[in-house]
Amino acid sequence: MFAAEQYETFQNEVRDFVLAHCPAGTRRIVAESGKLTRTRLAEWQRILYERGWGAPSWPKAYGGTGWDVWQRHIFDEVLAECDCPPQYHHGLRHIGPVLIEYGTPEQQQRFLPGILRGEDWWCQGYSEPGSGSDLASLKTAAQREGDVYRVSGQKIWTSHAHEADLMYTLVRTASTGRKQEGITMLLIPMDAPGLSVRPIRTIDGWHHVNEVFLDDVRVPVANRVGEQDRGWEYGKFLLSRERLGSANVAPLFQLLERTKRLVASRLEGPAEARRREHLALRLLMAEAEIVGQRELGVRAIEDVVQARPLGLAPSALKMASSRLMQQVSEIAFEVLGPTLAGRFGAKEGEVEDMNWLQSYLFFRARTIVGGTNEVQKNVIAKALFGD
Known about the structure:
This protein is an alpha+beta fold. It folds into 3 domains: about 5-85, no CATH class; about 120-230, Butyryl-CoA Dehydrogenase, subunit A, domain 2 (Beta Barrel); about 245-385, Up-down Bundle (Butyryl-CoA Dehydrogenase, subunit A, domain 3). Helices cover about 50% and strands about 15% of the residues. It has 12 helices and 8 strands. It has helices spanning about 5-20, 25-30, 40-50, 70-80, 90-100, 105-115, 230-240, 250-265, 275-305, 315-340, 350-360, 375-385; strands at about 120-125, 140-145, 150-155, 165-170, 185-190, 195-200, 210-220, 225. Strands 1-4-5-8 form a 4-stranded mixed β-sheet. A hairpin with an 8-residue loop joins strand 6 (about 195-200) and strand 7. Helix 4 (about 70-80) runs parallel beside helix 8, helix 5 (about 90-100) runs antiparallel to helix 6 (about 105-115) and helix 8 (about 250-265) packs antiparallel against helix 9. The longest helix is centred in the C-terminal third of the chain and has 33 residues, at about 275-305. The radius of gyration is 22 Å and the shape is globular. The model has no long low-confidence stretch (mean pLDDT about 90). It holds the Pfam family Acyl-CoA_dh_1. Keywords: FAD, Flavoprotein, Oxidoreductase. GO terms for molecular function: flavin adenine dinucleotide binding; oxidoreductase activity, acting on the CH-CH group of donors. This is Acyl-CoA dehydrogenase. Its cofactor is FAD.
């Protein structure tokens, strides 16, 4: 652990570097709430990798920084404050740590360098039709034949599958016992014969989720993570790595400040005074909640540092963060909505306005992805009141 002044020095070091090296075009897209492509995110990953910051949460032995939890939190906050994008999470924060913990040396040598350098893009094959929140009910089946598994089934809501090179996925290899048993984790190339991707068009107008169909896809046993039928353990480990993601409220503060500026600039003059003041009050109330969220996040990080149980904090943080993103974006939509609602395709000078509309629609999913609010409430209720 650093002393307080060392963390401040580290924060300044990160800020100076990202302001100097994060491409201006990328920062502009983030500042305008636009959608970043794989090309831009991969470029940013390469820049961080060359600086030695390619994997903030990985051990040094595997090419990571070896930073403590406070350094990782500071790094994420500074990126958001400077309108720099977060690093693409599927490789760095999801499958990478699983491979470090459970992968074979051959798998680590094969897959980790591509993640670090931003060369290999991953997606997550978890959800299926009818198996979203109840993931253990998944039905995609894998039958082992010698040195390969033959996989057939369907995955859905697969983010970035159309851009990915590989998919880490959970499949069923046995149907006896508890439904959490008999699940295996496989690593599947997206260009494997029999695998196809179909886009799902969402109301925000952006293409980011897909259906993935697997029709007798042959996957080498060498691409299995850990032991057969123990994939549920590895899947839970993967999800646990994101427990404190919502402790970083810098993106919320950035959204809040951009919305404040939008209200002030678009609702000028005496004629708009009542409306402007009403929205300003709503923003003030949201800001008070974000400050409270920040304090809860700081406490949760300190619990991790002190090896204390996190308890309900991750669920509470996730629910609050999702709701606040929606509330603040609703205010922006109330300013711009009457002229933009129902229309995609910006006219000249309207790119930022259209990004606001698409962000508002995109944030509708925040209370679903990463564990629905209903699931989070059940987790909290169970912890408070028991089964």
